[in-house]
Predict the structure.
Amino acid sequence: MTRASGAEPLATKTILAAGGVLVGVTLLVLSDPGTTAFVGDVEALGAAVALAGALLTVPRGPKLPAAQAVAGAVTFLVVIPWAHPATLHAHDLGLSVVGFLVLMPCATSLVWGARRNLTAVEVSLMMMLESVFGPLWGWTWLGQRPSWQTVAAGAVILASVGAHTIAPGAPPAG
C-alpha cells in the first residue's frame, strides 16, 4: 500500500524485509491448513488492510493522539455488534478487561509513538513480531507446543526483521 499510494519512500532493505516477513507469515498460515477458517482469514486480512491504511493516513506529529482516539472509537462501534461479554466466565472477563484497559492502550501508544519516527512499513514490520511472540507465550505459559512449521516461520520473521534492523543504510529521503 505504501508503494501504491506514494505516501512514503521505501528503502530497498525495507522492501526486502517486508518480503521476508511475508514469506514467514505465509509459512505460519500454511503450517496447519486443515484448521483454517475462511471467514477468520478474511477478517484478519481486512484488519491488516485497515491498519495499513491507518498507518499511512494518520499524520506524524501532534494530531496523533486525536487520530488514535477516533480510531479506537470507530473500532469499538464496528465490533460491538459481535461482542457477547455476558457469555464470558469471570476469569476470562477479567483478562479481557485488563487486556482492553491496560495492554491495548499501552501497545497502541507504542505503535503510534513509533510511527512518529518510522515509516508505516517499518512500524508494520515491528508489529509482525507479535506473530512470533504469540506462539512463544502460548508455549511458555500454556504448554501449547508449536509445530516445527510455526518455529520455522518465526525464525524467518525474526531473521527478516533482525536483518532490517542491523543492515546499514540511511533512511529514505523524503
Notes: DSSP finds eight helices and no strands in the chain. The longest helix spans residues 90-115.
